[in-house]
Amino acid sequence: MNRSASPELSLLIASCLDSGSYQTQKVESKQLFNLLHFHQVRPVLLSYIHRNQIDVDFKPQLTEYCKQITFSNMLSAQELVKAAGMLTAKGINVYAYKGCVWADWLYGNIGQREFGDIDLLISKDNFSEAVDVLTADAGYLVDDYRRHLLDAPEIKERFFKTDYHIPMSKATDDSSVLEAHWEVAYPRLLFTFPSEEWAEYTEKYFFLGNELNVFQQEYQFLLLLVHHGGKEQWRKLKYIADLAAYMSRYGHSTNWAKLSLLAHEKGIYSLYKWSLGLLKGLGFDWQKEWPQITPVDATSLIKYWEAMPRESANSSWRYFKHGLAIHDGLRHKSNLLWRHLKYFSEFKLLWHKAIWYRTEKARSA
Asked: Fewer CB in 10 Å around end: N or C, the chain?
């Protein structure tokens, strides 16, 4: 147990790490419930307290929540398979990414991971065609804002150069959101996983009786680090649980030399080392076959996890500062700075966005 964490957070950290050394403490149910909601680790905690015979006051409610999560996840998984199948049938290469595929890949249990969206990676070359297929054949709609950008020819190309995905929802159910990605993150964040190299790292994954395109585990592990540690900055324990699950399940079969080389090539070796160091610093049981890593002091993150702060509306400055910290060397850091400057020099796009938001605000007033 980390001494800087409350009893409630200590229990959640232990469950995410699947720690066998957790010492049972009295926890305050309301605080534990609030932390669970923020960190999105309800199935992880339920499994852990079952295995270790730990009791919490709201265990019946937690069990019911997890049943609902499993049901929702299964619907999302079926929708993912359906959407990917439609695109593949049209000759469009599509990759399953995050969400329910990671629940199965990391935990072997589709109900063990909380997620919100269905995520697909699609090459920019086929992206417009893919959106048309998802709209016409699968019943998805592009939100008004993105549709506005896509329908403006002088803005569309700028949008594709500066953004990375389009959320789509069903006309009959706006709670079912499919995120179609052509990049893994904003280009200005400098996480370079271009579609030109996807075929090199492709492998098939058997999921709900169907074959899906996914990535080899080393490549996919870096995608996990980029999303959880690069973009989301490990701000929720669900990301720590995923990292621990990967190490427990695949740490012994990972080609760490290959992974290290890829991380160096992409300028995120610092992110790779820091992320594993964070896991080790939290007290994860480190195996001798795994990379030699220096533990990272997790105190500042623990304080953040306890505080559960609201996300700021504008995250550009936070992204930039964090990007400088996790990218390697002067070349990659300079490139990161250049990408941000290029983004903020897109005056026409930014002005176009501002006008749209101002018009929408006046319309809804």
From this structure: C
Secondary structure in 3-state letters for 149-172: HHCCHHHHHHHHHHCCEEEEEECC
* AA letter at 46: L
**Distance from first CA to last CA of the chain, Å, rounded?**
50
Using alpha carbons, select from 83, 99, 17 the residue that is nearest to residue 52: 17
- 3-class DSSP assignment, residue 207: strand
Residue with tokens 């427990």: 248
Q: Render pLDDT for 270-279 as a digit per residue (tens, 0 to 9).
A: 999 999 999 9
pLDDT in tens, 88-103: 999 999 999 999 999 9
- Can you tell me the distance from the alpha carbon of 313 to that of 303, in angstroms, rounded to the nearest whole number? 21
Whole-angstrom Cα distance, residue 222 to residue 202?
14
The candidate with the shortest Cα–Cα distance to 149, out of 167, 135, 134, is 167
Full set of structural domains in the chain with CATH: 7-364 (3.30.460.40)
Q: What pTM does this model have?
A: 0.93
Which residue, 22, 1, 10, 46, is CA-closest to 305?
Answer: 10
Amino acid at 151: D
